[in-house]
Each structure stands twice: as structure tokens, then as C-alpha cells.
Amino acid sequence: MTPRERWQAVLQGRKPDRVPCDFWGTAEVTARLRGELGCASERELWERLGIDKCIHLAPRHPLAKEDEWHIPSSFDIWHVGTKEVAYQDRLGVYVETVIHPLAEARTVADIETFDWPVSEEWDVSAFRARCQEWAGYPILGCTSEPFYLYCHLRGMEQALEDLLLNAEIAEAALERIHAIFAGIFRRTLDAAADLIDFVYVAEDLGTQDSLLMSPASFRRFLKPRMARMIQLAHSYGVRVVHHDDGAIRPLLPDLMEIGIDVLNPIQWRCRGMEREGLARDFGASVVFHGGVDNQKTLPFGTPEDVRQEVADNLRIFRDCKGYIVAPCHNIQPNTPTENILALYQAVRDFGRP
After folding, report:
1. Counting Cβ atoms within 10 Å, is residue 252 exposed (0-12), middle (13-18) or buried (19+)?
2. 95: helix, coil or strand?
3. Residue 217 is part of a domain; what is its CATH number?
4. Helices (DSSP H) in 94-200: which residue ranges?
5. What is the pLDDT of residue 332?
6. 209 within some domain
7. Which of 18, 92, 143, 148 has its CB 3.0 to 4.6 Å from that of 200, i.e. a possible disulfide?
8. In this structure, what DSSP letter does residue 303 have?
9. Measured between alpha carbons, how far is 139 from 346 in angstroms, rounded to an integer?
10. What is the spatial distance between Cα 129 and Cα 121, in angstroms, rounded to a whole number?
11. Which has the closest alpha carbon to 318: 273, 277, 283?
12. How far apart are CA 276 and CA 207, in angstroms?
């Protein structure tokens, strides 16, 4: 089976020839693997390791300086200022926001007069051809993560305060962001819905131990718009991956209610996210994606620890709607190559019927 056929089999309730697997890693990790394994391209890397890589694509904005599939992170388009910060003795870098362009907004009028992009500015003319370049692989096309973007526009502390003290500002901004994303989704799906397997309707609402906001705030500010975006994707016959970091257990019934198809990343070391409980309570409703821990197991465990965790996940999620093996977020540069190789070898060893 091709990678795409494996994913489609799981999503359709059929048994693939083996459980599909995916890769999430920083750019530094991907480059290191390519170098160490002598792979001339990412496609060659996925083939060498037997990875059923979900290919992340998106239409491009002509003014974006970033070459970024994650549209909310094309920060130039939203007038968000960033800087790169090195970490782990310069093993890698991350992007930190230093300019929040809506930080001083005090009224709804300030939101309405902001220089918002419009969805028609994103160029979809080459998108179909880019999807066709990855025939045989599952494709995720287009992203929506409104509160994530709102935090960059406003500053996280102010954004969270707005939910309690400045609701009218939060509503105005989140509705404008939703409308832009919905327009991009429609244009992208009009261009290539038959080639796209998923869209990304996401947020980052969990910490290690709890939620960033109350369930009541989620239900007021985020859930209705998220439901509309999911309905839009489903109207084109395209499924929805919902990414949400951390301890989000209290929100999972709401997410099942609005129809997410795939839940990522399953950070099971976070409070309330124990794998057995997730499988028991939500396994009939959603396909799980992720679950190979990159807080302890992948960076600090042994190859045998990694193999055992893959085997455990396959056992725990065996009777669920579906499971796709993947790290529970981007593999970091301090992760030994032998542990990464062990992950994908374990899929080949343990993932067959």
C-alpha cells in the first residue's frame, strides 16, 4: 500500500497492511537525518525510513518572507515582529514574537481599522500542481488556528485577559481572523479538494497540567467558529486534523461533538491525557495521531524504551477507530538518531496485522 492508502484505510475503518506512521521534527532534525542517512531529499528520507509522511502544503502569500505551510505563522503578513532565539547550545533555533501589532488596541474600532490581509491575496494558482507532486502521500492543505494568531497579535497575557475583561475586542478580532481563514479554506478547497485529505483546525490550549482558558471561554470564543470551519471542510469531503497541545482532557467531549476526525498530538505525560483513558472514552469517535513521547522517551530513553512505547501504543489504541504512530510533537535536536530509527523500525516490526 502507498502511504496515502494506509491513512485512508484507517480513516475508512479498514485494516491497512501495517499501521501508518508519520514524522514531526524540527528543521534541524530533518536536515541531520538526511545528512546521516545520505538522503538527497525529504522524499528519499521518508522512503528510506518507511514513513507515511503527511505532506503539509498551503497556498502562498506573495508578500510572505517565510516559506511556511502554517498560515498563522507567516508572521510578516499579520505585521507580527519576530526574532530567532538559539537553544541547546545552538543545536536549534525557535522564533519568538517581539512585536505584537494589536497590543495597544483599546476598542473594536482599533480592531476594525487594523491592516488585515484578505483571503484573496493568497495565491492558489500553483497549489493543485504542488499536491500532484506528492501523489501517493496524504496531504494536509491549509491551516486555521485563530487564538494562536490572536496571542501573537495581542500578546498572550493580554489575549487571555481579553477573554474576561475585553470580550468585545476578542470577539471582533477572532471573527475577523475566522473570516480570513474561511476564505483561504474555500479558495484552496475549490482548487484541489479532491487531492487534499485533511485541513488543520487547531489551537494550543493546554499546559502540562491544565488548560490555558476555562471550558466556558473555549465554548464562547473558539468552539462555534471551530465548528463552522470543520463543517466547511466536511462539506468538501475533506477531513479535519485537530492539533492541541498539553492537558486538554476537559475539552475533548466538545471537540468530538463538533466533528474532528484526527486528534493530535496525544501528549500522554500531561495531566488527564493518559492513553488508556483516551482510548476508553474517545476511541470510537476519533483517530489518534502521535503518542510517542518526546519529553522523556525520545530524547532521554534508550532505543529499547522507544520500541516498547511504540508497542504499548499499538496495544492501547488497537481497538480504537484508528491510530497513526508519530512523535507527540516535533522531535527536538537533542534526540539521538538511534532513537528516531528505533521508532520507525518498531512500526515495521509491530505494526502489521
Report:
1. buried
2. strand
3. 3.20.20.210
4. 108-112, 127-132, 146-154, 156-165, 167-192
5. 95
6. yes
7. 143
8. H
9. 24
10. 19
11. 283
12. 20
CA distance 77 to 343: 37
**C-alpha span between 143 and 149 (Å, rounded):** 11
Which residues of the chain, if any, have pLDDT below 70?
none
Give the Å distances, CA to CA, from 239 to 67, 68, 129, 195, 324. Answer: 24, 21, 21, 12, 15
Q: In angstroms, rounded to a whole number, what is the distance separating the alpha carbons of residues 296 and 278? A: 20
> What is the pLDDT at residue 90?
83
What is residue 67's predicted lDDT score, i.e. its pLDDT?
85
Q: Does the pTM exceed 0.70?
A: yes
Q: Which residues does 25 contact at the CB level (< 8 Å), separation at least 6? A: 33, 327, 330, 331, 340
CA atoms 275, 277, 280, 284: torsion sign: negative
pLDDT value of position 91: 85
| 81 in any annotated domain | no
Burial 106-136 (b: 16+ CB within 10 A, else e): eeeeebeebebbebeebebeebeebbeebee
